[in-house]
Specification:
about 325 residues, Rossmann fold, alpha/beta, single chain, six-stranded parallel beta sheet, about 35% helix, Dihydrodipicolinate Reductase, domain 2, 2 domains, nine-stranded mixed beta sheet
Length: about 325
């Protein structure tokens, strides 16, 4: 396995987790900063380093690639890896357009390779429990999802603030995973309409600092997502709440309340507290699943659902640009 792109997510999640997984060997690291690649290779005992993904893909020792490069490079890097016959796990976003997503899905099918998108929130232990409750009908028909993420104003990689390279700002970074989670929890109903507003500096190549969206999905599910990465208010905030005809649930921590004989009753699962953060736990579970699928120890599901998610994402941005509700 090789890791291409050695920014923050590779250093804080992928490499620390992979280095402790039994039977997994990272044989190559690739980054255009050769010094960084060598330093991380030494730290995580990786034998080879590269500055060009094409050399990684020529190696017979590499059967799978994890792509964590800047957003605008995801599609070309994933496409190159698939054409080289490598399985791929790529960080969000899969591509910068719904057409790009469809191109990669088609390429994976043609190459007979497995393609994964790092939607790590799906692998959180509290999300898995919530998903089970919903699938079993414990909350009844879902009618509302309220979600959001406020991140403190701080420094970030310069490319993240350039639209041509990032593709989007706060919503693409923090809203897309919430949009995917809401769709996944509800079993991917079609998006019907959306209205949105955003704050963005002037200029053709800028990205949004904040965005609020209201979206209606098929079946009467209303979703609101509120994100900002210029939050001035102390600690970061993250929330995800689901309301149904029989109860409500929220994450961080998981709390589930059901209507039982007319009385709101807390039925939250109890158990040992997590020794690690939901962030690390979710990546550990996600990468374990990735490896299990590659070993044919778990079933593979192609990420075809991303077509709906990215179609809705484009609609949300269009609604914010136009300043009016649009049909999706």
């Amino acid at each position: 396995m090789a890791v291409v792109g050695l920014g923050a997510i590779a250093q804080t999640a992928h490499l620390p987790v992979l280095s402790k997984m039994r039977g997994v060997q990272v044989v190559g690291l690739c980054d255009n900063d050769e010094g960084k690649a060598r330093a991380l290779a030494q730290r995580f005992s990786v034998p080879d380093t590269y500055t060009d993904i094409e050399y990684v893909l020529e190696s017979d020792d590499v059967d799978a690639v994890i792509v964590t490069t800047p957003n605008h490079l995801h599609e070309p890097h994933v496409l190159s890896a698939l054409r080289a016959g490598k399985h791929v796990l790529v960080e969000r976003p899969l591509a910068l357009s719904s057409r790009g997503v469809d191109r990669l899905l088609a390429a994976a099918t043609k190459a007979d390779c497995k393609l994964f998108v790092a939607n790590n929130h799906r692998f959180r232990s509290d999300v898995q429990l919530l998903h089970t409750f919903i699938q079993n009908g414990e909350l009844g028909r879902l009618h509302t999802v309220r979600a959001g993420a406020y991140r403190a104003k701080g420094t970030m990689a310069p490319w993240r603030q350039r639209r041509a390279e990032a593709g989007g700002g706060a919503f693409l970074e923090h809203g897309l995973p919430l949009l995917d989670l809401a769709a996944w929890i509800a079993d991917f109903p079609d998006a019907v309409r959306a209205s949105a507003t955003m704050s963005r500096a002037r200029g053709a190549n800028t990205v949004e600092d904040s965005l609020f969206v209201f979206a209606e999905l098929a079946g009467g599910l209303n979703v609101t997502i509120d994100v900002s990465w210029n939050y001035i208010g102390g600690d970061d905030r993250w929330w995800f709440e689901v309301q149904g005809t029989k109860g409500t649930a929220r994450l961080s921590p998981l709390r589930i309340v059901k209507d039982i004989n007319g009385n709101p009753t807390d039925v939250s699962p109890t158990g040992a507290s997590q020794r690690e953060t939901p962030f690390i736990q979710s990546y550990r579970a996600e990468l374990a699943h990735f490896v299990a699928v590659l070993r044919d120890e778990a079933a593979y599901e192609a990420p075809d659902d991303q077509s709906k998610v990215y179609w809705a994402l484009e609609g949300i941005y269009q609604a914010a640009e136009d300043g009016k509700e649009i049909r999706l």
